[in-house]
Design a protein that fits this description.
Layout lengths: L3 H16 L4 E5 L3 H14 L3 E7 L7 H11 L4 E5 L1 H8 L5 H21 L6 E3 L4 H5 L6 H9 L12 E3 L7 H10 L4 H4 L19 H20 L8 E15 L2 E15 L5 E3 L4 H14 L3 E6 L13
Parallel strand pairs: 1-2, 1-4, 2-3, 4-5, 7-9
Antiparallel strand pairs: 6-7, 7-8
Helix pairs in contact: 1-2, 1-8, 2-8, 4-5, 5-7, 10-11
The structure holds xanthosine-5'-monophosphate (XMP).
Length: about 325
């Protein structure tokens, strides 16, 4: 019989045994997996776990600051790195989704490698890999996935030559959540919707600019906050706003406007492999739409995505 308490005890004992007095670096993403892996490792080796949290500028509004604060509060030995400008400058002018993903993966590796070099005498790379990541080639989330799918771009960075420790490698997602809960990790982290490694860059169709990121962050935060206050956030598997590079005519007072469109996406799913669009209540959609159009400068139209996967995908890029 699998219990999270037994898993935690055995895993911490094993980690202590394997790691001894060694140092581990681990990239935190704000997601469930890397957070649970970090707390387990922290319980086993304390300050010898060096966590790195990269701000790629493509996270949700205020998420970097809030999550960093939360990690610090949890007692983790964590270094936050502001790399917003590095990511944005490498994304400039890129329109193709795969080129955008590659650029983000490459910059992440460079930034992470620099940060890992600052941890003197490090021997191990910690990763939040879970069982489905092991059996599928593409993982849903986290820096570990980014690292794996991009490690053949150029030479191997130094941190990839480290020995790898993956304490969650045998667990499914629901088990990771149960372990996280038993470890006392906040529901804000455990209940967070899946969020892609390339972040908002793949929810801004076409080229990414600081201005578009800001518009999308604003619209997305209105959307997500409204789902939360309507009690719907935990019922939806994944939700997010998408910035469409389409302008349409609108009217504001006596004036004609010609501005961009925000699309809302919300899906029900078990594992992201298939998904149904959520039948969100009309009054909730109406409120979100009004608020976005009234408050977000540069947006005069909101649409709702009613496509399921397959044949559509969850993300638009
Ligand atoms: P799709 O769009 O393929 O998404 O239906 C399925 C799940 O995967 C996430 N996703 C990604 N996660 N890097 C990631 O870490 C990516 O490049 C990426 N693309 C999609 C998506 O958010 C959904 O949960």
């Amino acid at each position: 019989d699998w219990t999270s308490a037994a898993f935690i005890d055995t895993t911490i004992a094993e980690l202590k045994e394997t790691l001894g007095g060694d140092k581990v670096v681990l990239g935190l993403s704000g997601g469930v997996d890397s957070s649970v892996a970090a707390v387990l490792l922290h319980k086993a080796i304390g300050a010898n776990l060096h966590c790195i949290f990269v701000d790629n500028g493509l996270l949700r509004k205020d998420e970097y600051e809030q999550v960093l604060e939360q990690y610090k509060h949890m007692g983790l030995n964590i270094k936050g790195i502001d790399a917003k400008d590095r990511f944005l400058s490498q994304l400039a002018g890129l329109k193709d989704p795969e080129l955008k993903r590659k650029a983000i993966g490459r910059v992440f590796i460079e930034v992470f490698d620099d940060a890992a070099h600052e941890v003197t005498g490090v021997n191990w790379l910690g990763q939040g890999t879970i069982y489905p990541d092991v059996i599928e080639s593409v993982s849903v989330n986290g820096p570990s996935a980014t690292i794996k799918s991009h490690h053949n771009v150029g030479g191997l960075p130094d941190f990839m030559k480290l020995k790898v420790v993956e304490p969650l490698k045998t667990l499914f997602k629901d088990e990771v959540r149960r372990v996280g809960k038993a470890l006392g990790i906040d529901d804000v982290i455990l209940g967070r919707h899946p969020f892609p490694g390339p972040g908002l860059a793949i929810r801004i169709l076409g080229d990414v600019t600081a201005e578009k990121v800001e518009i999308l962050q604003h619209a997305d935060s209105i959307y997500i906050n409204e789902l939360k206050s309507a009690g719907l956030y935990d019922k939806v598997w994944q939700a997010g706003a998408i910035f469409l590079p389409v302008q349409s005519v609108g009217v504001m007072g006596d004036e004609r406007t010609y501005e961009n469109v925000i699309c809302l996406r919300a899906v029900e799913s078990v594992d992201g492999m298939t998904a149904d669009w959520c039948h969100l209540p009309y009054p909730v959609l109406a409120k979100i739409s009004n608020e976005i159009i009234n408050k977000v400068k540069g947006i005069n139209r909101v649409v709702y995505d009613i496509s399921s996967k397959p044949p559509a995908t969850i993300e638009w890029e």
